[in-house]
Amino acid sequence: MSDPTAAEGVRQRNLARLLRLVHLEGPLSRARLTESTGLNRSTIADLVAELVREGLVVERAPDPSRRVGRPSPVVAADARVMAITANPEVDALTIAAVGLDRGIPVRERIELDHLLSPDETARLIAERVEAWRAGELADAHIVGVGLAVPGLVRAADGLVRNAPHLRWTDAPLRDLVADATGLPTVVGNDAALGAIAEHLFGAAAGFDDVVYLNGGASGIGGGLIVHGMPLLGAGGYTGEFGQNRPGIASAADRRADDGVLEDEVSRARLLAAVGLHAADEPSLAAALTAAGAGAAEEVARQRRILSTALANAVNALNPAVVVLGGFLATIAAVDVPGLGALVREQTMSANAEDLSIRVASLAEDRLLIGAAEAAFGDLLRDPGGVARD
Questions:
Q1: Per-residue model confidence (pLDDT) at position 70
Q2: Which family does it belong to (predicted)?
């Protein structure tokens, strides 16, 4: 006699496989799903029908350009399934809704003249969710909230142990946001989430060993992908590259006595070089491009110090690709091959012989998409077991 519990477990795993495939790869034909999973056509049709009933995928007419064989309907993640995502920083709170199809239908950057508290962060997110539900997201199925925080986040319970630039210590942000919104909430380090996003969908897609560095208003954080999996560490605190002390070859390049990397390679120093108090990433990039020799020299100084920090990471970790996001992408984009050459001058030749240095291709979306991926985690693991809004 067959075990109905075991059969149901197999079915749930197959539902999860299909949903994850269309989430990661985009719209796929039923024929492609059959090929990718090894399941037969009738099983695929049955599973897709269940995901449609659950409001997780939609089926579209087959591609009219297809001329050969029987047309196969196309299955896509339902864009109405969404996660609310947020990135608190020292100068702004960015809040967005990210769809299971990776669309971002609404986004708001709330500029601030003071440091956010955890309570204010939760309140602002809850206010945006309420307003969007009454407007742009009236038809959305919101599955949860994902937060990308520039600080140490305990993996076990989402407690923000230390976000030094925000001056948060042992902040129960997950619980505050969950209570304020009524939604399941996940909290992670911003750079670790950015690394996951770039690995799945961006500049590091297809690579199993990745170093990602994120430059934001709060400094420099990092994320690591090792053998295709995020490396979190015992407590979830890996990737604090900004707190390392790189060697600085020229004393003239030093700006902070005994400073760490993020004291020297700094968004605040770039803003000062172009005479701005605050700016989003595209505005800062445009200002640096238009600025004069003084700003150019500051960019060059930061690139020299950054190259040493990257060389240390390459020597220690031997990644296939290094991805730079935020203001680090801005200073790298001036001359990516040139930055690569600076890094290789300081590494063991074998460690860097196949190294690729890239700018984050998800740009300003990277942290939001990474936070959404965390919020979608339970749904993608068990499509039938997650309650939706």
A1: 66
A2: Belongs to the ROK (NagC/XylR) family.
* Domain presence at residue 103: yes
Question: pLDDT > 90: what percent of the chain?
Answer: 89
Both 332 and 185 in one domain: the answer is: no
Question: What is the C-alpha separation between 152 and 164, in angstroms, rounded?
Answer: 9
Measured between alpha carbons, how far is 183 from 88 in angstroms, rounded to an integer?
18
Listed in sequence order, the residues at least 6 apart from 238 whose beta carbon sits closer than 8 Å to its beta carbon are 192, 222, 223, 224, 231, 232
- Residues 69, 55: one domain? yes
CB 82 within 8 A of CB 349: no
- Residue range 171-213, pLDDT digits in tens: 999 999 999 999 999 999 999 999 999 999 999 999 999 999 9
Residues 94 and 184 in one domain: yes
Q: CB under 8 Å, gap of 24 or more: what pairs does 260-263 form?
A: 261/220, 261/305, 261/306, 261/309, 262/219, 262/220
**pLDDT (0 to 100) of residue 69:** 59
* Residues spanned by the domain of 58: 4-77
**Residue 364: both structure tokens together:** 């300003």
**386 in Cβ contact with 378 (< 8 Å):** yes
DSSP letters for 265-287: S-HHHHHHHTT-S---HHHHHHH
Query: What pLDDT sits at residue 1?
Result: 46
Tell me what the pLDDT averaged over the chain comes to: 94
Q: Of 77, 109, 126, which one is at a domain's C-terminal end? A: 77
pLDDT (tens digit per residue) in 316-337: 999 999 999 999 999 999 999 9
Q: What is the mean pLDDT of residues 135-160?
A: 96
Say how many Å lie between the first and final Cα of the chain, rounded.
38
CATH number of the domain encompassing residue 93: 3.30.420.40
As given in the structure block, the two tokens for residue 19 are 């949903």
> Which contacts qualify for 4-11: CB closer than 8 Å, 24 or more apart?
11/47
Count of domains for the chain: 3
